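Dear colleague,

As promised, here are the two records you asked about, laid out in our usual form so they can be pasted straight into your sheet.

NAME FIELD: protein one
SEQUENCE, THEN STRUCTURE:
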Amino acid sequence: MPHVLIIDDDPTIQLILKKILTDQGYDVSVASNGLDGIKQAKALRPALIICDWLMPLMDGLTVCRTIKTDPDLSTAFFILLTSRDAIEDRVYGLDNGADDLLTKPFELNELKARVRAGLRLHQINQDLTTQKHLLESEFNEAAAYVRSLLPKPLHGNVTIDARFVPSQHLGGDCFDYYWLDPDYLVIYLLDVSGHGLGAALPSISILNMLRSQSMDGVNFYQPSHVLTALNEAFQMDNQNDKYFTIWYGVYNHAKRQLVYSSAGHPPAILLHGQSHQDRQVTQLKTTGMPVGMLPDTRFTDQRCDIDSSSILYVFSDGIYEIFRGDELWGFDAFMSLLVNDQDAIAHTGLDYILSHVKTLNTKAALDDDLSLLRIRFGADGCHR
């Protein structure tokens, strides 16, 4: 049974409204002033409120603004009762949060119709809110599932730390790293276009395919072969117009060499040098369209030597595509952070980077998934 709250300092109006609405089958409560009305609204959580505009202690507009700014009460349909019939007064009332206005003296059938319409809208709002909560719960479950598939930090000859921060709407980020054999370590990170489950599901499928090495005839030690096979298997015409970027590398621990290939993905950043003064920066990227865009895309391999001071960062674009108002933070600023704050990062770890990014982000949630890998190639494989 819908609950209706009447807030009016006129006892006659109280009696009339309560009788009419009780006869209609509603559960009705009455408050004689704005302060008591707000107190009852917080206790009763009514579906609809009828409130007089002019009252002592607190007028109806103040009551309305208070109700509408309370997250627990804001969905209540608010009818402002007034003797003012000028257009500018009605506009002013609606601009201050009222959902409807009813002019005194009111006609009984009109009152009943306004209440019925208000309760219908309140129920629709409630249903939408419920659906929103269900969708948010499903997205959270999906993000938790993706997170459960991701690898744990790696220790030993090579140490890898990673972070995955899904956006509010979930996205297509995914990464993995594992030893192909005792000397060869594969590292990759991919980002499927779009957001939501439609992007997350292909990324999980790709992860499972690569992890199980289920593509026949593919040399998983050669990154360009892997990207070519993925491009053949995941053409966007057959994948609901989804494509993805990827950075894929294979590290030979015995030779201390890294072979890599990329497909439209941001460059990985390789830092060399023990101190800030002698630190060198190399961007690791090859030419190649994102996987799935064109069936005849060619992918190439590049090779680089790795020394004991080397630190490699692999990431998705969500970590630097942060807008501060109309200004984009951007890749160059992110790379400068990695270079200039390396000592702080070494002390605090990846949380230092995430804290900085979250400080830059002015929105309640990230616009895109954020994934970040930090690979250290120390000679003794020690892990702080």
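NAME FIELD: protein two
SEQUENCE, THEN STRUCTURE:
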Amino acid sequence: MPRPVHFEIHADDPERAISFYNDVFDWKFSSFGNMEHAYWGIETGPDSEPGLNGGLMKRMGPGPVEGAAVNCYVCTLQVDDLDAYAKRIKTAGGIQTVDKMPIPETGWLAYFKDTEGNIFGCMQFDQTAGK
């Protein structure tokens, strides 16, 4: 069965997006200088842990429509403290789009937008959520 192996973030202002994701999640970015368009690799954590790495590039078309329903492939990130990350996201210039909600016997989920208008989720695993 196919599994995701890479994700990609498209940004109007790549440097602003890099700053946002570095400030919030401590992700590491490295430029791929030999490509036709500027591209940065994203290291989200050590290879010894589950998860995947991605890339970031300048958006090559119109961005997300303000106020529209989810119109993209949403990536959800595992966090250890959803409330703490919500604060970090807002401090870094992001906004919360869907309030924290329980996913019964799984955890707590909320959705946010980064500085480029991209939607992403954060999940804090907690088997007592919703009980």
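A couple of things worth noting about protein two: The chain has one domain: 7-60+73-125. The helical segments are 14-25, 82-91.

Best,
R.
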